[in-house]
């Protein structure tokens, strides 16, 4: 098993170019992607919205940290699918009321294939919630992440 080298604080730098009020072109480490809004919000719909991008980051972070924890523990595990539904309180965006928790509820469904026991899965889930930066950020912001894990025995 390979070990992962621990690191101090890591600098993460991105650059954004904003050609319209809704379109943002983001560059990071030689990669680029766009974030946009749908036409009904003055966008051109050429990419996901900022909020969809943030929720997508939770999906990707869940994938990375789940696989990392499984690897560290020597547990063979395959992720078949991760599904997410975020419940957005849009009143803050619409300036109707102050909304301190824009996503009060996030449903996260993780479907895995593994021979790990239920106890090992529960232990991994707790570790993932503690170590996934996106999960930590959203929970600290007040979002309730409701996780449902479906385990298929391989």
Helix percentage range: 25-40%
Question: Could you give me the name of the CATH homologous superfamily of the largest domain?
Answer: K homology (KH) domain
Strands, total number: 6
Average pLDDT works out at 95
CATH arch. level architecture of the largest domain: 2-Layer Sandwich
Number of domains: 2
Q: Structural class of the helix and strand makeup?
A: alpha+beta
Count of DSSP H/I helices: 3
Written as H for each helix and E for each strand, in order along the chain, the element string is EEEHEEHHE
Amino- and carboxy-terminal Cα gap: 21 Å
Poorly predicted runs of 5 or more residues: none
Strand content: 25-35%
Using the coordinates shown, work out and report the CATH topology of the largest domain.
GMP Synthetase, Chain A, domain 3
CATH C-level of the largest domain: Alpha Beta
Q: How can the largest sheet be summarized? A: 3 strands, antiparallel
Shape: globular
Strand order of the largest sheet: 1-2-3
Keywords:
154 residues, alpha+beta, GMP Synthetase, Chain A, domain 3, 2 domains, three-stranded mixed β-sheet, 6 strands, 29% helix, globular
Overview of this protein structure:
- The chain is globular, with a radius of gyration of 18 Å.
- It has 154 residues and is α+β, with helices and mostly antiparallel strands.
- The two termini are 21 Å apart.
- The protein folds into two domains: 14-47, no CATH class; 49-153, GMP Synthetase, Chain A, domain 3.
- Helix 1 (50-72) crosses helix 2 (118-131).
- The model has no long low-confidence stretch (mean pLDDT 95).
- It has a three-stranded antiparallel β-sheet with strand order 1-2-3, with no helix packed on it. Strands 4-5-6 form a three-stranded mixed β-sheet, with helices on one face.
- The chain has helices at residues 50-72, 118-131, 133-140, and strands at 15-17, 24-28, 31-35, 77-87, 105-114, 144-153.
- It is built from three helices and six strands; from the N terminus they run E-E-E-H-E-E-H-H-E.
